[in-house]
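User: If only I could read backbone structure tokens as easily as an amino acid sequence. Those tokens are not coordinates but codes from a learned vocabulary of shapes. Could you go through the record with me and say what the backbone is doing? Here is the record:
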Amino acid sequence: MQAPKVTEAMLTPKSFLQIYDDEDLLLENGLIKNEILEQQNEDHPMLETCIVDHVIFNGSEITRFEATDVIFTNCDFSNCNFSEATFYRVQFLNCKMVGINLNGSYLNNVEFKNCLLNLASLNIVNAKDVNFVECRLAEASFNENKLKKIKFEQCDIDKMAILETNMRNVDISTCEFESLEAQQELIRGMQVNEQQATYFANYFLGVKIKLI
């Protein structure tokens, strides 16, 4: 995936609230740090070429959010509604995203690294070149998605629901789970490790594999 085209040296310190100063709700070239923005309510704000660090958006309704060349680090998006978002060349690093709603979103060249995404809603998502690295996605829903070049690396995906989503060529072999909700016809071609293959054989066929 392509990394965001932004460095701290090219930015000016700004507040996220300055986005409301623009008629089009656009904030550009901003270094946004250490803000508490809980319960924000806005439709179609736009961030371009920004770094957002240690900002709390907890419980906000920010629908149709657009972000291009943005890095979010150590932010709290718990229980936020980001439905129908558009993220292009965006990184989420060490973010808390429990219960976030990203339904109907378009994700292109997006990375989630060391993020807490338990109970997240990632449904009806169009995702291209998206990486989940060392994330926790326990009990997340991942349904009715269109995927291209998706990676899950060393993630906790226990009790995740993956329905109506073609998982062909998606590699989950480094991930951990005790149970997973999936559909047999849509995980064909998914890459798994030996333990996971044993789980799916038992889950779909009732076959118990005896290792010798």
Q: What stands out?
A: The chain has a mean pLDDT of 95.
